[in-house]
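Lecture 7 notes: from sequence to structure.
We start with the chain below.
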Amino acid sequence: DATGTLVELRIEGDRIYFIGDRHVECVNKYTGATIWKTRASFDGGVLLASNPLYTDRRIVIGTTTGYISSIDKETGRRMYYRDINVNGFYLTLHEERLYTANVSLNVVDYWTGRLLLEIRKPPSYSRRTPGSWDNGVVIDPETDLLYVEDGFFAICMTLPRVE
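Predicted structure tokens for the same chain:
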């Protein structure tokens, strides 16, 4: 159908979620009937990233143009579509906060999409070090340590405190 390029497919219970480059669709896995279908963006030109985050209630998707979109898994309703000004390819959820890293390390409220904290990468400490974080964030829930890498070095820091 008109979903476009398939980015990801996921099966949960009796539902299949198709993440396309511009749409998200939920179908019944036994009948193939569409339960809901929604556009993930408002501008029509946004391509979705390849690492959607699935939770019990939502699908959260980062885009190639710096937006983050949250979609209700039951109804397909778009809960928010916000510009966080960073590629959201890799999203990590920890204690109702989304973490993503690219040009900056961002902390986003899971429920509202509001940017809570932005940490810019320190100036290059090596000629060969790129100017951005890469490949997302990993958080150790036992120690509250955050790990991120910049293409050359792994960086470990305490979890940023957000009010």
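Points to note: The mean pLDDT is 82. The first strand starts at residue 6 and ends at 12.
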